[in-house]
Amino acid sequence: MASISNLSSPITPLKSSPSLPTPPTAAVYLGFPAKLALASSRLTVRATVPLAASLLVKCSQNGGNGSHVKRTTLHDLYEKQGQSPWYDNLCRPVTDLIPLIESGVRGVTSNPAIFQKAISTSNAYNDQFRDLVQGGKDIESAYWELVVKDIQDACRLFEPIYDETDGGDGYVSVEVSPRLADDTQGTVDAAKWLHKVVDRPNVYIKIPATAACVPSVKDVISLGISVNVTLIFSLSRYEAVIDAYLDGLEASGLHDLSRVTSVASFFVSRVDTLVDKLLEKIGTPEALDLRGKAANAQAALAFQLYQKKFSGPRWEALVKKGAKKQRLLWASTSVKNPAYPDTLYVAPLVGPDTVSTVLVIKLSIFYIF
């Protein structure tokens, strides 16, 4: 089968605030090349909880004039393949991100579930939470103050990458309240509020790709706010997300679009979770042989759609104003079926102009001299 990196031509596819304002109510495979081969299908992680699926980061040291520079597979992934590895987790102390950044991680994503787990399982939030509640904050307002502090601190750590890449990488994502998933204007208001209170150039406001929120994406982009559009499961919804991004850029009225960027988070493994059950219900040898293949096949079609939509006269007109492509972000890349290889949704989807999220809690580096 072809690799994502070989799909070069379009193909028509089948600063911290002491007190925040009140928030608004709320079938293509590509394995790693030889030099990028994973040393193991497991990544040793520093964790308080076990990790079901992970990657081992294999490092080397090289450099000139007697200096030694740590190199990892993640560095090569970005420099040789054009894919940015992002960390799909965030908790205190945020300084735990530093060794991950040194190992090649180039961004962070978060969501309400990640923060719920972080706050409820760690003592690191207790003092600030207690002070907020004793100061008269309600629970939801206190939650957002905890979240905004973490996001701001993480943005500071990744800002050098953002600056070095001229806004191409180094982003930290924070999601609007899930209660707004069916509220178009409420989502726009929440995105504006989060963007204002976080007040960092490298923050992504995360908006779900629900039918009600796709129009929100257009409106938020038109305001010059960068967006991570999440929870994309189908090709039709992904195309609607791309169109919302393009419509937003065109409606912005900005002469320089270079600082308005976006990623589209396309969920992978959960597709197989659904399709595999249907194949097992059919039960024929032919059907069973297709298990574990639908998700990557659909992801490949998504990449073809990406190539098609970000080419041609409409896109070229936006490029002249500095517009950047809305990169595909491969989300839900950990296997849900323990019988599958840990890298089933990682190695096949290495390709240029994409982001891949990895869930690691503690990273152990293995050096080769």
Automatic annotation (TrEMBL):
GO terms for molecular function: transaldolase activity. Residues 1-20 are annotated as: Disordered. Residues 7-19 have a biased composition (Low complexity). Keywords: Cytoplasm, Pentose shunt, Schiff base, Transferase. Pfam families: TAL_FSA (PF00923). CDD domains: Transaldolase_like. It catalyses: D-sedoheptulose 7-phosphate + D-glyceraldehyde 3-phosphate = D-erythrose 4-phosphate + beta-D-fructose 6-phosphate. SUPFAM superfamilies: Aldolase (SSF51569). The keyword Ion transport does not apply. Gene3D superfamilies: Aldolase class I. One of its GO terms (biological process) is carbohydrate metabolic process. Pathway: Carbohydrate degradation; pentose phosphate pathway. Coiled coil: none annotated. Transmembrane segments: none annotated. HAMAP family: Transaldolase_2. Belongs to the transaldolase family. Type 2 subfamily. Transaldolase is important for the balance of metabolites in the pentose-phosphate pathway. PANTHER family: TRANSALDOLASE. This is Uncharacterized protein.
